[in-house]
Prior knowledge:
The chain has a domain at 76-210: Classic Zinc Finger (Double Stranded RNA Binding Domain, 2-Layer Sandwich), CATH 3.30.160. It contains seven helices and seven strands; from the N terminus they run αββααββαββαβαα. The protein has helices spanning 7-12, 36-47, 52-55, 76-95, 123-127, 138-248, 252-262, and strands at residues 25-27, 33-35, 57-58, 65-66, 112-114, 119-121, 135-137.
Amino acid sequence: MALSISPKLEEKLVCSICLELFKVPITLPCGHNFCKRCISDHQGKQEQAAAGAKQGFSCPECRQSCAPQLELKKNVTLSKVLELVRASTTGVKQCEVTPGGLCPRHGRPLELYCEDEQRCICCVCTVQQCQRHRRALLEDVHSRKQALLEKSVKEAQEESEKIERALQELEERTQSIKDSSEGLRSVILSKFAHLEKSLQAFQCQMVAKVEQELSAALRRVEENSNTLKGHLDTLRQHQEQARDLLVSTTDHRTFLEAGARVSVCPSAGIPPAPGLGEPGGAPPGAVRRGRRGGAPQRDPRRHLPAPAGGFAWCHGPQIPRPRCLR
Length: 326
């Protein structure tokens, strides 16, 4: 490729796929440039694969993944640079049409450049065809166009570097956001795990306490039950003795002598046991409500006559209410 540009500049303007000057240059998100047709063919081949339809395609230069069905946009700045390159190349080629740099029309040396027609001309062309056109020396036009082209390439390179830096910053910001989110997630999981552990420990303590209270309450109930059973046996013996005395003894002296031995109830002095659902119990003669909220009721024993022979009313022992039910 005979271009009047530096090799470094030429290298920057060549597509890495077709190895020619860019035709409709396209810039990928990674910053690399390709011909639109070349990168479209590359994109189509990779997306036709089974996994490519979802994963997209990769850049031929850096292998960075691109989104599937990515819209390929034209690089306007690079396109303008290529137009200047092609214009400069066309002018140089016109000057080199004939051997020795002679004008193909007049056979004279090509010494000037017509900026209106963008071609190299000889002195005869200057007088005849290009008399009213803008003209300049070949060296001056070449230097000016080369400087302009190099400036455009430099600007395009700077713009590409800015875009690459912006993309790098976005990637770093994305990673920072992910790291922060992961750290917050770890803290939340740790806090809730600690809270769950504390709740489980508290649950075990409460259940153990309830079990302990239950065991203590059942133990007291069993003790009271055994005590009541003992008193019940004593009362039954007392009843049998009293009934035998009442039935079998008719003589006054014998009755009084035997009655002195059984006249006192064995359980006298024991406070009455509370009723079901009545903590502490109610003393004899106290006013009590009916189950369904009826008229006040009094202990019927209060209105009964005193037992004959000095017998006292017997009251069962008081059953303490379990602590867990207080």
